[in-house]
Amino acid sequence: MNPFRARTLAILIGSCAGLSALQAQAAVDPLQLVEPVAEYKIYVSENAGQLVTDTEAFVAAIKAGDLNKAKALYAPTRTSYEKIEPVAELFSDLDGAIDSRADDHEQAEKDPGFGGFHRIEYVLWEQNSTQGLAPFADQLLTDVRELNGRLADLTFPPEKVVGGAAVLMEEVAATKISGEENRYSHTDLWDFQANFEGAYKIVELLHQLIVAEDPAFAAKTDANFKTVFDTLAKYRTADGGFESYDKLSERDRKLLAGKVNTLAEDLSQLRGMLGLD
Q: How far apart are CA 147 and CA 151, in angstroms?
């Protein structure tokens, strides 16, 4: 076990008294949640570290004025962030700075407070330029570095981890499926893949507990994740990326939405199953 992994497990085990309030209602012993949550925190930390590395390259391309490279790096750079979105509520201030949409700001794209990935996306695709992006790129890098540094001391409540997976799937089905998030670049399928991987990581780490409570439910959830991953795989490109989201027909979008809704319904039952409501 590496030192960081050991330290994370020790911290969470040492604070397991915070789980005692769940004891009376829990379908599983709260102590059984300690290691899966610790492993998930490690997963989040590893992705945050990768996000910093990828964002450094992305920002360098922007500041060098390399429009094509910046566009090519946009979607893959976001991947690590989208994988950890199930727990974005735990760092909501940074989430707003890193990943807000124009709609979240009073003056939309003209709002001086509109920054982060989507401000950069807007300029790269709608204005087809890197001009004027250096301050936004620098701030994005500052924010992802702060996120990475903050995680070590951040508490991961089990109910937030488990509930976050369901909430994210609901968001994908209700709003992201329309293509509203990456509306300028149409790189939404990259985000979807990362979102599903991040949610599945939570289910995977809790798999033994879920099987112990309801084997049929565990099998159904695994099958639904496989269906979603198989659907996305149809839109993979030869270079490992994804087709532009605007190439999907309305029928395909509705089909994908239906499958994600099923997954969201599955995951919404997990908190109750594990006694975390």
A: 6
pTM of this prediction? 0.89
C-alpha pair distances (Å), 25 with each of 35, 36, 168, 274, 276 = 20, 19, 25, 9, 8
**Residue position matching structure tokens 């789980």:** 19
d(Cα 71, Cα 252) in Å, to the nearest integer?
Answer: 25
- Phi, psi at 248, each rounded to 5°: -75, 135
Q: CA 216, CA 137: separation in Å to the nearest integer?
A: 47
Label residues 1-20 b or e (16+ Cβ within 10 Å = b): eeeeeeebbeebeeeeeebe
Closest residue by Cα to residue 171 from 263, 102, 109, 240: 263
User: Alpha carbon of 203 to those of 21, 184, 199, 224: distances in Å?
Assistant: 23, 32, 7, 12
pLDDT at 3 over 90: no
Residues 260-277: tens digit of each pLDDT: 999 999 999 999 999 887
Instruction: Give the chain's domains with CATH numbers.
Output: 33-273 (1.20.1420.20)
Could you tell me if 200 and 228 are in contact, meaning their C-beta atoms sit under 8 angstroms apart? Answer: no
Q: What angle do CA 220, 226, 232 make, to 5 degrees?
A: 140
221-271 residue pLDDT tens? 999 999 899 989 999 999 999 999 998 888 888 888 888 999 999 999 999
